[in-house]
Amino acid sequence: MDVLLDNLDVFREGFITTIQLFALAAVGSLILGTFLAMLRVSPVPVFRAAGTLYVTLVRNTPLTLVFLFFFFAYPLLEIIDLSYFVAAVVSLIVYTSAFICEVVRSGINTVSVGQAEAARALGLGFGQVLSHVVLPQSFRSVMPPLISMLIALLKNSTIAGGFSVREAGAIRSILSERGEDQMVTLLWIAAGFIILVMVLTFVQRTIEKRWSVAR
Amino acid sequence: MSSILFDIPGPRARVRHRAFAVLGGIALFAVVAFIAWRFYDSGEFAGQKWEWLQYEQVQIDLGNAVLSTLRAFATGSLLALLFGAIFAVGRLSDHVWLRAISSVIVEFFRAIPLLILMFLFFYGLPVLGIKMSPYMAVVLGLMLYNGSVLAEIFRAGVLAIPKGQSEAAYAVGMGKTQVMTLVLLPQAIRSMLPTIISQLVVLLKDSALGFLITYQELLYYARYIGSQGSFDRPIVPTTIVIAAIYITLCLMLTGLANYLNKRERRSKKHVDLEGGGAAKGTAMAGEPTIS
Question: Residue B151: is its pLDDT beyond 60?
């Protein structure tokens, strides 16, 4: 308990940075992931190919390698200077959006083709089919796996701690300089993550219960 | 074929699509060209940045780095599969206490970030007087985290098997253990094989976390070579090479999963699992395949 109470400032700062990192990366990867999913379901082959290529490449690369690239290799390319925090957010977005893309895409595919065909036969336009028929249904089936992705993103954000971003994953190295017991420190960090994950899991369960549909 | 979002294109839509294809192609080309130009302009395509690949010692060391990544992967996945099977059976047990313990362990290790778990072994255990090599910490972390995820996959597989299977097995007089090991688990593993292998892809990628606890694997070597002044600090080329190696390894595993999946579908032993509807299937496919 002493380890936590004596260093509450470090723990607070660390977890707040983690939550900021998580929130920014979540929003960014939802946007980029949806965009990629749009590319992958589009009727234009070039877009489909580009989306598939991106997803295949990124999904098979370790996140740590993405971090390594953005922290050590990217600065040499001299495009835009990124601070450590922004570089971490970018790495997480690049990686997570590939997974979000697949979730959104499979969500769209859960709606049976017959429904869209029926809607089109009734004379609904593309926008109407999307907003009245497809999206309301796919949104429901997408939410639970989407939150699973966000939970994974939250846990993945600890990697930033290994790349000199002062977030929850970095609390250990800060406190070891203060001479604290590392085992206890790490158990407290783990406890913090368990609480955060439990919150997200609770949201997931609630949504699942409220929105589950019989098909 | 009409898809969910788009009807079969008519003449006007085809023209529009072609226009989009041209515009999109130009835009994509511009993006790729910009990136390539940045690489070229900052001298990353220069010959001396890639010279390191020609040295025999570097090639041998690179091979060794690949081997140590694969070693962590092989040991980790073996242990994770074992751990997963044990705790899946534990969670399906008829005894409440066994179920409770297994659930707590599985949920606990699933909720902790894998990196923190590795830190716990590598930095935490020495405090208690247990010495840990980076390799051991990586393997233990991989085992506990991915094992817990695999336990959930196995459990979902067993639960998805039609009830008639176990009822029939009990009816011919099999005991609980026999039903589980002879009837349920073989079918569950069979039907879950693609998901299991995609979790192993995750495990392979997760082994890269060893970099952060000084396990000398691929990323560690990339960083080492990338900071060598005598090779003109080729961190960009090394990252590209390492990424290519990882992507090849993962695609090989994914290819194996697809092959097994296809074979399983053709096989006479194929069982259609109940409740394996599209929504559930995607939820399960989507859930575990991220680290």
Answer: yes
Put simply, whether A119 touches B (Cβ < 8 Å) is: no
CATH class of segment(s) B55-286? mainly alpha
Partners of residue B33 in chain A, C-beta under 8 Å:
none
Query: B286 in contact with A at a CB cutoff of 8 Å?
Result: yes
Q: Residue B199 and residue B153: Cα distance in Å, rounded?
A: 9
Instruction: Give a yes or no: residue A192 inside a domain.
Output: no
> Token pair 């972390």 is at which residue?
B141
For the entire predicted model, the pTM comes to 0.88
Does residue A173 form part of some domain? no
φ/ψ of residue B5, rounded to 5:
-95, -30
Q: How far apart are the first and last CA of chain B?
A: 35
Q: Which domain holds residue A73?
A: 16-166
Domain count, chain A: 1
3-state secondary structure of B222: helix
* Chain B residues closer than 8 Å to A190 by CB: 112, 116-117, 120
- Is the ipTM beyond the 0.95 threshold? no
- Reference B211, options A174, A95, A64; nearest CA is A64
